[in-house]
Design goal:
274 residues; 11 helices; glycosyltransferase activity
Length: 274
């Protein structure tokens, strides 16, 4: 297969321009350059963002799509999915730092059998050189299936997949305000599309300080969205009723912890140092 591919990036109003700059530079430094970088403006591009894009110049083939009104991330990702010019799509987040060999290592793994590929991420707070915690996900498909009943079996900012496969399973669910990537992965699995992960850190994932982390991963709003997502999995018979009650119980206990205790749990229990 050829190695023409689209990088899809959704920028929201919470994405800082300087983080966006670092993210784009990490694409410039790729040993395998993307054929296009499709940036969807979901209300996030400021004058500073446009200045950064202009400074990149011809280093990347950037195409901008502006959404007329603010949409969910799922809607924005779906717009990018349909608009991508190439059959291979790589997801990138506007505040993460890609390792320079991400694409050259991941994209050749896609073939007639493997339809989506991902990798591990290293979480960091402010600077890439912060001591990071690695989010490891299972590599083999049988383990990915088992893991996916309880948590997303991929690190979304690392995934690459075939556009036609994503469209054939319905694309991103535009009604979801959380977990649209997780939902897409489960539909790949339900339709027999093989996924694998490479046991290498390919993206440095920005989580921010303790308060920002809690805002992203804790609280009542996120809990409601997670319950809604897993209720959907239950209705689709992807998980059992027992799975559902076990998952919801754990989510309630974790997401409603106070900020300081949530962070202790997150770093000391949920994640392990490499």
């Amino acid at each position: 297969m050829g190695h023409q591919f689209t990088v899809c990036m959704v920028v929201t109003r919470n994405d800082a321009a300087e983080h966006f700059n670092v993210a784009l530079l990490s694409l410039v430094c790729q040993s395998m350059k993307p054929s296009e970088v499709l940036i969807v403006d979901n209300g996030g591009l400021t004058d500073r963002h446009y200045e950064i894009i202009a400074n990149i110049g011809d280093e990347l083939s950037i195409r901008l799509l502006r959404i007329a009104h603010l949409s969910s991330v799922g809607q924005a990702r779906n717009i990018a999915l349909h608009a991508a010019r190439y059959q291979v799509i790589a997801v990138a987040d506007p505040d993460d730092i890609n390792e320079p060999d991400r694409f050259i290592k991941l994209i050749p793994e896609l073939n007639d059998s493997v339809r989506m590929v991902g990798a591990w991420v290293r979480e960091f707070s402010r600077e890439k050189n912060d001591r990071g915690i690695v989010r490891r996900v299972p590599c083999e498909f049988v383990d990915i299936i088992r893991y996916s009943r309880f948590r997303s079996p991929v690190n979304n900012p690392t995934i690459c997949y075939f556009k036609n496969d994503a469209l054939s399973v319905g694309g991103y669910n535009t009604s979801l305000h959380f977990g649209e990537d997780y939902d897409l992965v489960t539909r790949f699995i339900r339709n027999g599309k093989i996924i694998r992960n490479i046991p290498i850190v390919m993206v440095n994932f920005r989580i921010g300080d303790a308060k920002k982390l809690y805002k992203k991963r804790g609280g009542l709003f996120l809990l409601k969205q997670e319950i809604n997502l897993h209720r959907r999995f239950l209705e689709n018979r992807y998980i059992s009723l027992l799975d559902f009650f076990m998952i919801v119980t754990i989510k309630i206990l974790v997401r409603l912890l106070p900020c300081w205790l949530f962070n202790v749990f997150y770093f000391k229990v949920l994640r392990k140092h490499e």
